[in-house]
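Technical note accompanying the year-one report. For the benefit of new consortium partners, we illustrate the data format agreed upon in the data management plan: each record pairs a sequence with a structure-token string. No post-processing was applied to the example shown here.
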Amino acid sequence: MGEERDLMTKVKAITIIVLFCIMTGSVYLVWPIVSKYVDTENHEKRELASRPELTVENISDFPEEYETYVNDNLPFRNQLIKTGKKVEKHTVELQSTDKVLVGKDGWLFYVNPMDGNPIADYQGSDCLTEEDLYACNMNIQEAVKNMEAEGRTFVFLIAPSKERIYSEYLPDSLGEPAEVYPAVQVIEYLKKNNPNIHIVYPYDALMQAKKDLGEDRLLYYKTDSHWNELGAYVAAREVMKEIDGEYPEDMPALTDENLVIEEKDAPTGDLTELLSAVGVVDDGKTYLPTLEDHQIDVELLNFNLMSIFHTQDGSKDKVLYVRHDSFGCNLAYSLAKQFKDSVFVHWTSGDAQDIRNVDPDVFVLECNERYLYPSMHYWYYPAAEPAQ
């Protein structure tokens, strides 16, 4: 009797193992066919692991590398992650990561300490030294001098970070935003040493707009790290006021009845993707200012490289060049409508010669406040070479 029981136990164990192998193996058999009809896009904004080759040099690391490869390339991986996030959402709250902070009421914030360190900037724990400020000032001062010698107006636009404008949605443990932080330091230092410099830091304008609009209409996305079209519009108005001394007539204030603010579903946020929570979190709404149509033609729409806008409005007579980070994307249309031609170039491309080839009347250097030091310290606009 005991032998029969042992035999039955072994048969059950073998059956379970065989069924498990069939179930897991069949997934790989059907995946080449099914993968054409399901979501296989990489939403994590990182390069997934490729199949490692076994060599003498990596023999000790090969098991771990292969495990990473398998994990990154599992059949139905996106569906498994999405299901896991849904289970997490309905059982426990979404968990923050080292790059994305889950705030209140479904708000997400970018907190990667290796990419500008937004929280250190928010708390003012990364203030610049006197030497840093001096070096940055010398670069900007030289750029302003060289551009003015060429007949160009130089404008330095600092885009406030989302956590500073919507700090009420951050966890209470982070405290109130610091009163002294790099943007404040830089603005005070540059103005002290260059009284006529054009600097735009639209923090006050955005906070006033936020107050005027109320809680229902936003200036930044809930699940993305950037300002939306409406927030960018507020910044664009401040840039034009700095250039011309007054707001353009065709850029009315947010409270003006002639400005229609359209509500739409927000696109999937970059933080949603970074959290692997596409289809799980609510990306909320976005808001667009509806302005008089200046019939802008876009010659090349690629914000990571170059975008050229041609405004078919005879009253516009100046050319604009903007060197920008990702905040420049939503800024483009509002600002481009105020110029005859506008060139928007991401900071990873374009140089002094490229600027001179475009020959703009106005040059705008835009950066988010967490990139302030590298944007000032590593960018340089030299004087033009003397004509031969």
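Partners are asked to follow this layout when depositing records. Residues 1-37 form one domain.
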